[in-house]
Structures are given as structure tokens and as C-alpha cells.
Amino acid sequence: MQEKHNEIEYQRWDIHQRIQHFFLLISFTLLMMTGLPLKFPDSTISKVLMYLFGGVESAGKLHRIAASVLILVSIYHVIYLVYKIIKRKNVWAMLPRWKDVQDLLGMLKYLFGIRPDRPRFDRYTFTEKFEYWAVIWGSAVMIITGFIMWFPVFTTRILPGIFMPLSKVIHSYEALLAELAIVIWHFYHAHLSPDVFPMSRIWLTGRITEKELIHKHPLEFERMKRSNNSPGINTNEANRNEFPSSESQ
Amino acid sequence: MTSSNRVRFFFFNVCMLFLLFFSAKTYASIGDCLVCHNNKEFEMTLDNGSTVSLYINSGKFRSSIHGKFDCVICHTDYKVNIHEQKMQESKTDNKEIDIIAKTKGRQKIVLLSCINCHKKEFNDYRQSIHGKVALEGNHDAPECIDCHGDHYIRPSDDLESTVNPSEAPTTCAKCHNEALLMARYDINTYTYITYEESFHGKKLKLGSGRVPACTSCHGVHDIRAPEDPASEVNEANRLKTCGKCHTGASVKFVLGFSHNMPSPKVDPLIFYVGLIYKWFIIIMISAMAIYVILDFFKTIFVRRS
């Protein structure tokens, strides 16, 4: 335990990112619990959930409240990004690039034993980028189709009527995709992977250990060392600097 | 006469009086019928060899809306001497006898039983597509008991009623899911499944009392074919029908509702979007699962060695 305390850690998520993740987690879970029963109305679990939420009508209200939270988180995220761009912080590391395709192929070769070492990842691995963009895409799709169904009379003043059944189909499939992706992809990388089991604590502390950083993001670590900016922080120190390599260009 | 003899004589007389009272009755009371019909094994073999259960669950009957009635109020053909008397039509006036003249057998008995009291419902039913076909003597069309049940009819606001909104889709589907029956009238059989898949249908299944069931839009006793200008779901009346719940519904809004089953020809946009999504999910999720499993075992393997 003592040893762990002296381990060098790096600040990776600032407080805004943690708040965004927390409210995304809350709203996603509520949306899933109140929405999935509609997809599987014959299941006993659905009936139990409906009972717990006080009936399908109040579950519907809760779904809309959670949707509002998701919309607010999305707005928060956009404002956060705009603020960072104005402050000339580097937010572009999340953009997909050709190296991500090479990394995916490299990772597959490594997993099948064709190459001996893991690809060397930068600030964000392709798995993280994939998840981020899936959330962006999924939220946009769910918010737009959800809005159409929330205010059907209003939206059909502008859009053709077919958009209502179409929205229902898209909302239903996209929800299933998002939920399965969370359960398989996110839960693996954040919980079940032997590297982080039982849970990565980045969403609470915002920090990762030097060991984990070198293992997962070696290119970023090397660039940081080269910039010689004393980026690491000892967890015993009160003073915590921002992550220089990622946040400044 | 000793005093005990006098008591015995008095008792005998009282019994005789009771017997006289009951035998003077012109019809059998429910108790008389249930002597046999409350027996679970009571059944009848038909000419074609099949058996019909003649069992009546008296408790269930008593708790039904007609539970206080005697059997013969509806079973008018069993008025005096049970099981021998021909059907009696005395209580029904001639106007209605003419209307149901073409019906026969079970259909006629049912209609005769119910229209004695339910004249308004019968008049609505006559106008409906079901009624029009049934009154032609066609046995495919439903009469009262096909939807309402027979001995255990409950009021429509009772959750156990077969015509309560929560049960209506199942009741209608009894016929409307029958491919052979529907094919005779060129009616498609996916009305139920498309309702079940709709937002209304899913919420109804989860116990919502606010969503519409079949009868909310199509009418109750006067269900008409959609082509009928008086039908509530005729294009001319849809604004009003949808507007009952969706205040301010526009023409574009109304066009969003249908029992269409998306296919390459009907609503192709919805069909192809759904198809693409389905396969995208299958491929994407399988790929994720395979990657995750590989990564898991590789990580463990590398750590061990």
C-alpha cells in the first residue's frame, strides 16, 4: 500500500471531463433501464423494472428527464471543447488518423501472435477513439430521433410523417448497439481487462500511473520526457499540474 | 294427535308448500341448471364424435356482470322444459327478428339472447363490417360472444374483460391473426404484429392505461372497413381520430401512422434502414466480442510467461 502511494501518477482527465463522464454514466444507465423494457415488453425483467419505476408512464417521464441530462452533458461538452480551442489547448489528439488503422492491424497481428510487440500508441489508442466517436455519434442519433418522438406533433409540422416510424426504428436499434457496445467494449476496457481489473479509477481521480501510461501510451510518455517538463506528479504532492504533452502544443 | 305428531304434520305441510311454490315456477332457476352444469366432467358427445364440455364455473359466472341472472334469461330456448323446448322468440319484437332472419344456429341464438337487452349495441353492430357480414348468415364474422366471451362476461373497464383495452389486441388477434380466415376477405394478418411492435402496443403491454388499443381508433361495436367514409380510420376522419390524444395533429402527422409492414415495396426507407442497422449491429458487436476475448487471453498469456 505504501509503495502504491509513492507511485508516480499523471493527471489525464480534468474535473470537467470527470463531471461529464459522471452525468453521462447516470443518464445512460437511467435511459437504458427505462428504455430497454419497451424493446422487450414480454420479458419479466422489463415488468420488474416498470414496477420499480412506478409504472410505464412514470418510467417514460424518467426517460425524458434522463434524456434532458444527456442533452445538457452534450452541451457542456461542446462548450468545454470550444473553451479549450479558444485557450489554444490541443483537443485534436482525438481525431482519427491513418495511424489508427495501422494500430488496429498491428494489434490484431499481435493478438494472433504474428508480431511480438504491441503497437506503440500515442495519447489516445484506437480503442479509446472508437469509443469516444461512438458516444458522439450515438448521442447525436439518440437525441435527434428521441426529440422527434418526444414532440411528434411539433416535428411533423416540419418533417414528413414517415420520420416518426423511422425515428422509432433508428432509436431502437441505435440504443441496442450503444448498450451492447458499452457492455462489451467499455466494460472490458474499463473493468474486466486484466490490466485494470476490477476497475480503472480514472473516472474518479482523473489520474493514471506511470506504469500504465508507459504500457498503454508509450509515444505520449516519450514525448513528455523529451519536452523535459517534469510532467509526473507524486500522489503525495498537493500540487497537480495539467498534462503538458496532451494539452499544449 | 300427540304433540310430536302435530309438529311432524306441520313440517310436512311446510315442505309441501315449498314444493308447490317451486313447481309453479315457469322456468328453471340457475340452481337447477348448476346441479349438472357445475360438474367439471359434464360433457356431450356430438354426432361427429367430438366432445363439448358443458361445465360452467359457477363462481366465475357469479362474479361476471350477468352473475345475478338466471340461465334462461339468455338461454331463451330453454324456457319451460329444459333440453326439449324449441327456441322461443317471444321476447324479441318483429323488427329485430327481420334483421337477423338470415342468421342461423349458434349465431341466431346468440343474437337473440343479447339483443333483448342490448338494443343500442346491436344497432351499432348492425352498421359495422362484422355485423353486416354476420347478418348475411356468414359464420366467419364475429357476433357478441366472440369478443365478449359467453358465461363470464365482465364490464369493459374490468381489467380481466376480454374487451378491456389491455386485452383488446389479443381478442381481435384471435381472428385477425388467422391467415386462412383473413385471406378469404383479403385482409392482411400483420395488423396485430405491427401494433405490437408500435410504441402504442409496447406501452400497452407494459401496463399503460393511456395508450390506444384497437378499439380506440377503429371504433367499438361499429367497427367499419377503412374504405367506409364513416370509419374512424378513414383518411377523411383520421385528423379527428388521432387528434383525440395528439392535440393539433396535422395531415403529415397522421400519415406517420399505419399498420404497414416495412418491406422493399412498402415503406422501403424504414425497411432498409432497419436491415442495415440489424446487420451493422451483428457484425460490429461480433467483431468487438472477438477482439475483447482475444485481448483478454493474450494479456493473461503474456503475464504468465
Quick rundown:
The complex is a heterodimer of chains A (249) and B (305). Chain A is mainly alpha-helical and 249 residues long.
Keywords:
heterodimer; A: 249 residues; Fumarate Reductase Cytochrome B subunit; three-stranded antiparallel β-sheet; 12 helices; 3 strands; B: 305 residues; mainly alpha; two-stranded antiparallel ribbon; 51% helix
Task: Please describe what this structure looks like.
The complex is a heterodimer of chains A (about 250) and B (about 300). With about 250 residues, chain A is mainly alpha-helical. Chain A has helices spanning about 1-5, 15-40, 45-50, 55-85, 100-110, 125-150, 150-160, 165-190, 200-205, 210-215, 220-225, 245; strands at about 10, 205-210, 235. Chain A has a three-stranded antiparallel sheet with strand order 2-1-3. In chain A, helix 4 (about 55-85) crosses helix 6 (about 125-150) and helix 6 runs antiparallel to helix 8. Chain A has one domain (about 1-245): Transmembrane di-heme cytochromes, Chain C (Fumarate Reductase Cytochrome B subunit). Helix content of chain A is about 70%, strand content about 5%. Among the domains of chain B are: about 175-260, no CATH class; about 265-305. Chain B contains 17 helices and two strands. Chain B has helices at about 5-25, 30-35, 60, 70-75, 95-100, 105-115, 120-125, 130-135, 145-150, 170-175, 180-185, 190-195, 200-205, 215-220, 240-245, 250-255, 270-305, and strands spanning about 45, 50-55. In chain B, strands 1-2 form a two-stranded antiparallel sheet. Chain B starts with a helix and ends with a helix.
Summarize the topology.
The complex is a heterodimer of chains A (249) and B (305).
Chain A (H helix, E strand, L loop, with lengths): L1 H4 L2 E4 L3 H25 L4 H9 L3 H31 L11 H14 L14 H25 L1 H7 L4 H30 L9 H4 L1 E3 H7 L1 H10 L5 E2 L9 H4 L2
Antiparallel strand pairs in A: 1-2, 1-3
Chain B lengths: L2 H21 L6 H8 L5 E3 L5 E3 L4 H5 L8 H4 L19 H6 L5 H11 L3 H9 L1 H6 L9 H5 L19 H9 L2 H5 L7 H7 L1 H7 L8 H5 L19 H6 L7 H5 L12 H37 L1
Antiparallel strand pairs in B: 1-2
Helix pairs in contact in B: 10-12, 12-13
